[in-house]
Amino acid sequence: MQIWTHFPEHLAEIDAVYLGDEERPRRLRRIGTSRGHATLSLQGITDRESAEELRGTVVRIDRTQAAPLEEGEFYHFQLIGLNVETEAGEALGTVAEIIETGANDVYVVRDAEGNETLIPALKDVVPVIDPEAGKMIVRPLNYWG
To answer: Residues 6 or more apart from 68 whose CB is under 8 A from it?
Structure first.
């Protein structure tokens, strides 16, 4: 599988995974990692044909097994779906996706009509992220001084 985590070293501590939308986890018997990919040996997957049928399936872990983050850091799943508004209270939409650019992430905020606003994930631009309240507050940049 392709690894989507920024903490690949943490995979050695995982003991169960969820395949796709499965509600019950599968025991992870063994994992090997190399160059951004992992090979898994899972409970219930006993032959190559069974494994091939899972090609393209998202593999998830339980939240309790996620690597701990520093204060003020969030996992993408915590941000997707947050309501976004300006400091003045103007609703902009919800976080629809996150683009990783290398320098900083960019939040793609989509309104009800499908219009998109790109918000750089910078503390000066996004002073408040509150997943528990379901919102993100942004300070629009004033390019015209």
So the answer is: none
| Helix, coil or strand: residue 46 | coil
Q: Give the distance, in angstroms, between the CA of residue 54 and the centroid of all CA atoms in the same chain.
A: 21
* H/E element, 51: helix 48-52
Check: CB of residue 104 under 8 Å from CB of residue 119. no
Could you read off the pLDDT of 47-96 as tens digits, one per residue? Answer: 999 989 988 888 888 888 888 888 888 988 899 999 999 999 999 999 99
Instruction: Identify the DSSP state of 2.
Output: B
DSSP string for residues in 52-110: HTTTT--EE--GGGSPP--TT---HHHHTT-EEEETT--EEEEEEEEEE-SSSEEEEEE
